[in-house]
Design a protein that fits this description.
This protein is of the alpha/beta class. It has two domains: 1-112 and 132-137, Rossmann fold, CATH 3.40.50; 141-287, Rossmann fold (3-Layer(aba) Sandwich). It is built from eight helices and ten strands. β7 (176-183), α6 (198-222) and β8 (228-234) form a beta-alpha-beta unit.
């Protein structure tokens, strides 16, 4: 049985944008779509003044309206819905394990002046064992003339899970893959105000290009029909990915699944890209 694509929904505009993105993704994957609405008070009695059955009926009606809208727009996709009686972060994180990926809407305008991402989106993306796609308010990014999936690549610690997700997405879309690696001069190069000569900068840049080429070679071989662009830039990974997102249909970043004392969290690059990218962002957990 094919696992569903999941979409978190509520009554917001950003939620509907995410639901439509998820429906398109389900159509590409030949998978069903399941709508999720999480709220901790579903099925519980709070007090005599609050009629929980009416609130639950309202939630069901809201989900039914969205499901009907999606079924009409994407007739080949089987749409179902599920109420999750738990807090948004805990409920959606747990429910995500049932699906191929979870899609959540975010609000904001993109760019470095700020995509304001809510705590629920960040919380789920930082904890989910399943890939989470964050779609910004206003709908999916406009499809470029040549479809492109951008993936953040760490040449020092490459992740097969992140690359696999990016290449599979590109194959589903008939898109090319842009492998972005941002590098910076070692901190010691600025010690005591010393600045390396241009020849050393070029040597370090060539080294970064070579490392990326060697690491990407097996993926070129595995996906011979997919055009791969190796994009090595100075200035760090986050800035490079945000800049590249302007011409991308999807940006893919990784998140390590190891936990810290304060619990799972997003790395600095993933956090920055989620906040500032101009395209939907897929956060892929990996070891």
């Amino acid at each position: 049985m094919t696992r569903p694509v999941l979409a978190a929904v509520d009554a917001s505009v950003r939620s509907r944008a995410a639901a439509h993105w998820a429906a398109q993704e389900a159509a590409r994957r030949g998978a069903p779509l399941r709508l999720l609405h999480a709220w901790p008070y579903l099925g519980r009695k709070v007090n005599d003044l609050v009629k929980m059955d009416e609130l639950e009926t309202g939630a069901q009606t809201m989900m039914g309206d969205i499901a009907q809208e999606l079924a009409a727009a994407y007739p080949g996709v089987a749409v179902s819905s599920e109420l999750v009686p738990d807090s948004a972060i805990d409920g959606l994180t747990a429910a995500a394990e049932q699906g191929q990926l979870l899609v959540i809407g975010t609000r904001g305008l993109g760019g470095f002046r700020g995509l304001l991402v809510g705590s629920v989106s960040l919380g789920v993306a930082g904890r989910s064992k399943t890939p989470v796609v964050l779609v910004r308010e206003g709908g999916p990014a406009a499809v470029s003339a040549e479809p492109e999936v951008t993936v953040g690549f760490d040449a020092m610690e490459p992740s097969d899970a992140v690359m696999e997700f990016a290449f599979e997405e590109a194959q589903l879309r008939g898109a090319r893959v842009r492998v972005v690696h941002g590098w910076e001069l070692p901190p010691t190069y600025g010690y005591a105000g010393w600045i390396p000569v241009e020849s050393e900068r070029q040597e370090l840049g060539a080294l970064a290009v070579g490392m990326v080429a060697d690491a990407v070679a097996p993926w070129r071989e595995k996906y011979p029909r997919t055009l791969v662009l190796e994009d090595v830039r100075t200035g760090g990974g986050a800035a490079a990915l945000v800049e590249a997102s302007a011409q991308s249909d999807l940006v893919v970043v990784g998140r390590r699944t190891r936990t810290l004392n304060i619990g799972p969290k997003l790395g600095s690059v993933a956090h920055a890209v989620i906040h500032h990218a101009q395209a939907p962002v897929a956060v892929v957990p990996h070891d």
